[in-house]
Structure formats: C-alpha cells, structure tokens
Design goal:
This protein has helices at 88-95, 107-114, and strands at 12-15, 18-29, 55-60, 64-72, 75-86, 130-133, 141-144, 158-161. 43% of the residues are buried. The chain has two helices and eight strands; from the N terminus they run βββββααβββ.
Length: 171
C-alpha cells in the first residue's frame, strides 16, 4: 500500500473527462486503526476489500463523498486533492466557485467537482467513467500526518506534491 500511494502523486485522474493531476493522497490498510477496513468487511466498506484497481467511495459525516483507489487486497489511497486541468467549466459549475485552487483541494470538494457519488463505488478504474494516466514526470513528494482522523494520528501516511498550491492543507 505504501509503495503505491506515493506513486499516485502526478498521475492524472479523470471522471467522464473531468479531472486533473493527483497532488495529495492518504494511505490506509487493514492493520491501520484509522482505516474503514480495520474491523473487517461491512456492506459500507466491501469495495475496500479488493480487488485492486477499483474505486471505494463512501460518504464522510453523511455529507461529502470521498474517493479511494483500492491499491492492495485490503488497502486504499484516499484521493485528497487534484490540480484541476480538464473540464474546468464543469468543475466550476459543480462547485459554485471560480477559484481554481478551491475546486479540488479536499476529498469532498474533489468528488463534487468531478461528479463522484456512491454510484461510483466498486467501479473499475481502468474503464469509463474513470481514466487514469501515467505521470509524465516524478514530482518531489513530501509526507505529513493524515487529516481528520482520531486514531493512528502519528503516522505520516499523507503524501503530497512538494510546493503544490492545490493541496488541501500544506504540511
């Protein structure tokens, strides 16, 4: 899991042609008490139990959708932020803002901007509506503690593109 998560920084993510470059992710695995998979399989988290290459989408606090890329048999990377590059007008309309930095600078904002909902849970990431593209260069990556959790807060399993102005919160 922790080999894959940093490799997602700089990858392009599109949903129906709308998206951008991944600049921030958080890693979660089954041994992690902050992970949805920690206490075992449930109807809510079943997509997180594989197979890899699928979306795990859940609602956070009953309000915001969050997108995870399942990267291991029981492990996923929460996509926290994108640098928007495609479908900007659609992202602005969905988010109700013209500020490009505010479009995808957080997991809930990102899902709203890309139109991701619970309907995307369990879908394969290698076919429509998703499209992942290889990174064209290897960005400098920094680590930081994860955000918005109460367990395993000491772990620096948040990976960010160094210096990106599009991350949800600077380390």
């Amino acid at each position: 899991m922790h080999e894959v998560a940093p490799d997602l920084i700089g990858v392009t993510l599109f949903v129906d042609g709308v998206g951008g470059l991944i600049v921030e992710v958080e890693a979660y695995d089954q041994e992690d008490p902050a992970s949805h998979a920690y206490r075992g399989r449930t109807p809510r988290n079943q997509s997180m139990f594989g197979p890899p290459g699928h979306a795990y989408v859940y609602r956070s606090y009953g309000i915001h959708w969050c997108l995870n890329l399942v990267c291991a048999e029981v492990g996923a990377a929460l996509i926290r932020a994108l640098e928007p590059t495609a479908g900007l007008d659609e992202q602005r309309r969905r988010r109700g803002t013209d500020d490009v930095r505010a479009l995808c600078s957080g997991p809930g904002k990102l899902c709203q901007a890309l139109g991701i909902t619970g309907e995307h849970d369990g879908l394969a990431l290698d076919r429509a509506p998703f499209r992942l593209g290889e990174r064209t260069n290897v960005p400098e990556i920094v680590t930081a503690p994860r955000i918005g959790i109460t367990r395993a807060t000491e772990l620096s399993w948040r990976y960010l593109e160094a210096g990106s102005r599009y991350v949800s919160r600077r380390p």
